Amino acid sequence: MQILIICGFLVAAIINLLPVIGVVGAPQLERMYGVALEGPDLAVLMRHRAILFGIVGALLATAAFVPSFRWAAFFAGMLSMVSFLVFQALEGQTNAELGRVALVDYIGIAALAVAGVAVWMQSD
């Protein structure tokens, strides 16, 4: 069980840490998401979003090794990834880059679900 927990949280952590490169600047964000960041306001918001991904990713990575963090990390990670998929579905057709983000989020959700089930089973 422990290997499922550690691997599940680490996969989700890596997925959430990948967007942190966006803190470097707008060109990285534009390339990653396939969108034009017109003006400094949107760039600031997206760079801040990258920091928030870093926080979620760090929480997930910590939870892989610190059991007391696991449920908080599980719910934070799930909320982050599932909310993206919900928003994408509500908006309809998106570009290929965002489709790739959605696919990666599905992988993260699956990994985190496996970890969550393993944590739950271990607590019995």
Summing up helix and strand content along with how strands pair, one would put the structural category as: mainly alpha
Strand content: under 5%
Q: Calculate the terminal CA-CA distance, rounded to whole Å.
A: 12 Å
Helix content: over 70%
Radius of gyration of CA atoms, rounded to a whole number? 15 Å
Q: Give start-end ranges of low-pLDDT stretches.
A: none
Q: What is the arithmetic mean of pLDDT?
A: 94
What sort of overall outline do the alpha carbons produce when their principal axes are compared? elongated
> Count of helical segments?
5
The major pleated sheet works out as: none
- What is the N-to-C order of secondary-structure elements (H for helix, E for strand)? HHHHH
Strand tally: 0
What does the secondary structure layout of this molecule look like, with pairings?
Layout: H1 2-17, H2 26-33, H3 40-65, H4 70-91, H5 96-122
Helix pairs in contact: 1-3, 1-4, 1-5, 3-4, 4-5
Verbal overview:
This protein is mainly α and 124 residues long. It has one domain. The protein is built from five helices and no strands. The chain is elongated and about 50 Å long. It starts with a helix and ends with a helix. The model has no long low-confidence stretch (mean pLDDT 94).
Short account of what is shown:
The chain is an all-alpha fold. 80% of the residues lie in helices and 0% in strands.
List the defining traits of the structure above.
124 residues, mainly alpha, 80% helix, 0% strand
